Amino acid sequence: MLGSGNAVASRSVPWIEKHRPVSISEIAHQDEVTRTLVTAVRTGNIPHLLFYGPPGTGKTSTILACARELYGPDWRAKVLELNASDERGIKVVRDKVKNFAAQVVAGNGPAFKIIILDEADTMTREAQSALRRTMETYSKVTRFCLVCNYVTRIIEPLASRCAKFRFKPLAPQAMNERLRDIANKEGMPLSDELVASVVGAAGGDMRCAVTTLQSAAALGGVAALEREEIAELSGAVPPSVLAPFWAAVGARDFDALQRAVRDALAEGWPVDGLLRALLTTATEDDALTDETKAKFAASLAEAEGRLIDGAGEELQLLHVGASMISAA
Fold first, then answer.
1. CATH for 170-233?
2. Do 65 and 27 touch, CB atoms closer than 8 A?
3. Does residue 221 contact residue 211 with C-beta atoms inside 8 Å?
4. Could you give the residue range(s) of every CATH 3.40.50.300 domain in the chain?
5. Which residue spans of the chain are classified as CATH 1.10.8.60?
6. What is the 3-state composition of the chain as percent helix, strand, coil, each rounded to the nearest 5?
7. Could you read off the pLDDT tens digit of each residue along the chain, which spans 328 residues?
8. What is the CATH number of domain 239-327?
9. What is the domain class of 30-166 according to CATH?
10. Pairing of strands 163-166, 49-52
11. At what angle do helices 290-308 and 313-327 cross, to 10 degrees?
12. pTM for this prediction
């Protein structure tokens, strides 16, 4: 475990920030992206960028690493990072973004600043349209990097002005190596079996894996935890939570389905985790035909899309269950 003295302070720092890659070469399992960006950074010829892909695949870490290599120790003065899910209205674009974009670039390095808009797919269409105009006006002195999970939610006039880079879920081997490196730096012993449990529960999401590892360390170390406890730390939904849901589907009992959905939500399980667990269970069920699995997957996709648009969680889970009953 961590040593004494600075141990408490060290544990209080999120490991995902403490061990964030500081150079492009440290980004794991995104070779096609990093090869292109290394050349762009070396020449100083950076276009507007659009990074998209699942959570925890290194999108934000990559653009921050680019900024460090472009600007050196003073990179923070030339980078504005906003979480568009919190500040996604047109007023933010007109005020914060436009004011920063208009500033004159001083000092050494490239003659442009970088504005990072994380979770840009949550911005309103009006804000995205205003952002397009701002990108055109200040393109000589500012580069924009849009980071999102769903590229289809970025309006075409905005997406077409950016070089697009897709980030894929991390391979288990890459996650294994990174977790062992972090554990080694933290003085934390790991067994092969439980590292595999952390990697499996994370599902290609390095942020989730590192956070789970830190949570395990705070509870006495991964070596002291069972596979089920690791899954719970990662936020994965255990099969027991979904058992009443599947029982109601099998019995074609909508009232029981409604109770199962309400109970799962009342226990605090995140709806995205419930949807992922339902998909995993359904695809691994040999009793279901491929056609039934395809219909169920389509229903889950529809529900996820509606949830992103602000639909109610209970209603969407009920829709998924009802679709499964009708398809069975």
1. 1.10.8.60
2. yes
3. no
4. 30-166
5. 170-233
6. 60, 10, 30
7. 344 444 444 556 888 888 888 889 888 788 889 999 999 988 888 999 999 998 889 999 999 999 999 888 888 888 988 886 665 566 766 777 788 887 777 766 788 899 999 988 888 888 888 888 888 888 888 999 999 998 988 999 999 999 999 999 888 888 998 889 988 888 887 778 778 878 887 888 888 888 888 887 777 655 545 555 666 666 677 788 889 999 998 898 999 999 999 998 998 888 888 888 888 888 888 888 888 888 888 889 889 888 877 888 999 999 999 888 877 6
8. 1.20.272.10
9. alpha beta
10. parallel
11. 160
12. 0.75
User: What DSSP state is assigned to residue 238?
Assistant: P
> How far apart (Å, rounded) are the C-alpha atoms in residues 145 and 47?
9
Residue 9 region by backbone torsions, left for phi larger than 0, else alpha for psi between -120 and 50, else beta = alpha
142: which 2 tokens?
Answer: 């500012």
| Structure tokens that stand for 82 in this block | 């906003």
Q: Are 307 and 316 in contact (CB under 8 A)?
A: yes
